[in-house]
Design goal:
Blueprint: E1 4-7, H1 11-23, E2 27-33, H2 40-44, E3 47-52, H3 63-73, E4 77-79, H4 89-97, E5 101-102, H5 107-114, H6 116-126, H7 141-151, E6 155-163, E7 166-171, H8 174-192, E8 197-201, E9 207-215, E10 221-233, E11 236-242, H9 249-265, E12 270-278, E13 284-290, H10 297-304, H11 308-316, E14 333-340, E15 342-343, E16 349-350, E17 353-354, E18 357-359, E19 366-370, E20 377-378, E21 385-393, H12 396-409, E22 411-413, H13 419-427, H14 429-432, H15 440-446
Parallel strand pairs: 1-2, 1-4, 2-3, 4-5
Antiparallel strand pairs: 6-7, 6-8, 9-10, 9-12, 10-11, 11-14, 12-13, 14-21, 15-16, 17-20, 18-22, 19-21
C-alpha cells in the first residue's frame, strides 16, 4: 500500500480522497491555488503546497509543476479526483514515467475511451449496443448533411473529445446541421484542442442511465448497479438516484452485463462509469465512458456499502479487487442532490461569494460531502458545486421522505443556492412518480 498520496484537485472531492486515505493509513499532500488557501481540504491534509494563481491554467492544470511537488514531497501516488487532469492520458503517462502511481486507468485506456468515435467502435466490436451514427469522423458540411439524411432528423453532432455538453449540437434541419457543424467544431477546438466531430441519431428526452464498474489489473471486472442521472439542465446533472425507477431487475442485469463487457473490451482498470441512453421502449445504447470517479459516486456507496475511492486506491496499489459480483448486494434506495452556488431564478447563474452561515443536514441515513463551512468564500474561478446531500431509505418512498427533510433542514446564507429548486423538484408529482427524463428540468422551468 502507498505511504503518501497527493491530491491533484480541490473542493469536496479532495476532502473525500483525504478521508479515504486516512482510513487506509496513508499520508496526504494537498496542492492548492491561492484562491483555495482557506479550503477545508488544505486544512485537513498532512501537507499542503501552494502551486499557483487561481486560474486552473496557472495551477491545477500545470502537469510539470504538479510532478515537481510530487517529487519534492516524495509521494507514491497521485489521485486526480474528477475534472481538471483526471481524464488526461498525458498526465497519467507523465506520472508513471516519474515512478508515481496514477490512481485511475492506464493512459492507453484513457486515450481509447476519451476519443468518442474510437470508443463507439470499441463498443460496437464488443457487441455493446450503440446509437445509430457515423462510422467515423464527419470532416465536411457535405458529409454531415449526407449522414443527417441517412439517420433522419433529429441528429446530434458531437466532438470526439467533448464533455460536459461542450462541442455538442442538436439539429432538426439541414440549416441547423450546417450551423451546428461549424459551431461545434470551433467550440471543441477551443475547449479540447481537437475539433474532430462525429454524428449520432438524437434520442428525444431519453433517460440517462450510468453503470458503475470496478476493474483490477488481473482481469476482474464487476458492476455495482445503475444510477439514474436524467435530472439535468444543459447536460449538467442536478440529482441522481439508484436504483432507477425505470430499470427492472431484468434490465439491470442486461445493463450490468453490457457495462462489464465494455470495460473488458477497453482493457479498463480502476473505477469507471459506462453511460447509456434508455428509450421509452426499454432499449439502451452506449453513450460514453467516464474514466474517473464520478461526482455522484456516493449514491452507489450508500446502496452497496462499497467504498469506491478506497477501492480505487487499492487497485492502483496493485492489489486484487476485494469483491466478486456475487458479493455486491443492492440494499434500499439512495438519492443525491447537488447543492450548487447558483441562482435558479436567474437561469442558474453562478453565485460566488462568502457563506455567512452553513448548517449541513444530518441525522439518520444522511450523508453530506462538502468542503464548505460558515465563513468560507466560494471563489469565482471553478465550478459552483459546494456540496452533495446524499440520503438512504429502505425503499424509494422512504428515501424521498428523508431527502425532503434533509433539504428543508439545510441552511446556506450569504449566497444563492439550488436548494429551493431541489425542494421544488422533490415535491413535483412526476418526479415522485418516477416519471421523468432528460427533458424534465426544462419542463419544470417552464411551469408557472
Amino acid at each position: 500500500m502507498f505511504n503518501k498520496v497527493m491530491i491533484a484537485n480541490r473542493g469536496e472531492i479532495a476532502v473525500r480522497v483525504i478521508r479515504a486515505c486516512r482510513e487506509l493509513n496513508i499520508r496526504t499532500v494537498m496542492v492548492y491555488s491561492t484562491a483555495d488557501a482557506d479550503s477545508l481540504a488544505v486544512r485537513m491534509a498532512d501537507e499542503a503546497i501552494c502551486i499557483g494563481a487561481p486560474p486552473p491554467s496557472e495551477s491545477y492544470l500545470l502537469i510539470e509543476r504538479l510532478l515537481t511537488v510530487a517529487d519534492l514531497c516524495e509521494v507514491d501516488a497521485i489521485h486526480p479526483g474528477y475534472g481538471f487532469l483526471s481524464e488526461n492520458p498525458y498526465f497519467a503517462e507523465a506520472c508513471r514515467r516519474h515512478g508515481i502511481a496514477f490512481i485511475g486507468p492506464t493512459s492507453e485506456a484513457m486515450k481509447a475511451l476519451g476519443d468518442k468515435a474510437v470508443a463507439r467502435e470499441t463498443m460496437r466490436a464488443a457487441g455493446v449496443p450503440i446509437t445509430p451514427g457515423s462510422d467515423g469522423l464527419i470532416a465536411t458540411e457535405a458529409q454531415a448533411l449526407t449522414m443527417a439524411h441517412k439517420l433522419q432528423y433529429p441528429v446530434i453532432i458531437k466532438a470526439v473529445a467533448g464533455g460536459g455538453g461542450r462541442g455538442m449540437r442538436i439539429a432538426y434541419s439541414d440549416e441547423e446541421v450546417v450551423q451546428g457543424f461549424h459551431s461545434a467544431k470551433t467550440e471543441a477546438e477551443k475547449a479540447f484542442g481537437n475539433g474532430d466531430l462525429y454524428m449520432e441519431k438524437f434520442l428525444v428526452n431519453p433517460r440517462h442511465i450510468e453503470v458503475q464498474i470496478l476493474a483490477d489489473n488481473y482481469g476482474n471486472v464487476i458492476h455495482l448497479g445503475e444510477r439514474d442521472c436524467s435530472v439535468q439542465r444543459r447536460n449538467q446533472k442536478l440529482l441522481e438516484e439508484t436504483p432507477s425507477p425505470a430499470v427492472s431487475s431484468k434490465l439491470r442485469d442486461k445493463l450490468g452485463s453490457a457495462a462489464v463487457k465494455a470495460a473488458k473490451a477497453a482493457k479498463y482498470t480502476s473505477a469507471g462509469t459506462i453511460e447509456f441512453l434508455l428509450d421509452a421502449k426499454g432499449n439502451f445504447y452506449f453513450m460514453e465512458m467516464n474514466t474517473r470517479i464520478q461526482v455522484e459516486h456516493p449514491v452507489t456507496e450508500m446502496l452497496t456499502g462499497v467504498d469506491l475511492v478506497k477501492t480505487q486506491i487499492i487497485i492502483a496499489a496493485g492489489e486484487k479487487l476485494p469483491y466478486r459480483q456475487k458479493d455486491i448486494q443492492f440494499r434500499g434506495h439512495a438519492i443525491e442532490c447537488r447543492i450548487n452556488a447558483e441562482d435558479p431564478a436567474r437561469n442558474f447563474a453562478p453565485c460566488p461569494g462568502k457563506i455567512n452561515l452553513f448548517i449541513p443536514a444530518g441525522g439518520a441515513n444522511v450523508r453530506m460531502d462538502t468542503h464548505a463551512y460558515s465563513g468560507y468564500v466560494i471563489p469565482p474561478y471553478y465550478d459552483s458545486l459546494i456540496g452533495k446531500l446524499i440520503v438512504w431509505g429502505h425503499n424509494r418512498e422512504e428515501a424521498l421522505t428523508v431527502c425532503n427533510r434533509a433539504v428543508n433542514e439545510m441552511v446556506v446564507e450569504g449566497v444563492k443556492t439550488t436548494l429551493p429548486f431541489q425542494h421544488k423538484l422533490l415535491k413535483h408529482k412526476d418526479f415522485v412518480d418516477g416519471e421523468y427524463d432528460t427533458g424534465f428540468v426544462e419542463r419544470i422551468l417552464q411551469e408557472k
